[in-house]
Every structure is written in C-alpha cells, then in structure tokens.
Amino acid sequence: MNAIELRPLVFAELRKIAPELEEGDVEPGKLLRDQVDLDSMDWLNFLIAVHQRFAVEIAEEDYATLDTLDRICELVAARNPNAS
Length: 84
Prior knowledge:
By secondary structure, the protein is an all-alpha fold. 54% of the residues lie in helices and 0% in strands. It has four helices and no strands.
C-alpha cells in the first residue's frame, strides 16, 4: 500500500487514542500535534499502535520527523509496503 492508501488506516489508530476525532479534523500535511490535543504519553501510545498494527520499526530518532499524518504514512509505506 502507498502512503495515501494507508492514511485512513493510520487515522483509525489515532482515533483509538483520541476517539473524539473525526477524519475532517486532521489535515494530513499539517503538524499533527498542533491539530490534536495529545500529551506525550498519548503520542507515544499512538506510535506504538502504528508500530504494532503495521509491523514497522519506529526508532526513537524517527519521532521528531513524524510530525504529520502524511509523514507517518510515508514511513509505514516505506518500511512495510505490504502493510494493510
């Protein structure tokens, strides 16, 4: 799957952490933490959920670059092109 196809699946993982979100609440190219009220534990739980759901390694040094929904989807697509 490519990053665009992964977007709703990654968003579903985000909604598990922040169930009040609707898909239109998040612009994929904008800073995610500015759009969604996640504390550091919620953010970490979200990244762990992405790691588990898509079987991708997310190193701690990657955290700073994973600032938008698009970038998270791009990472998943690059590290596990068969993710679904």
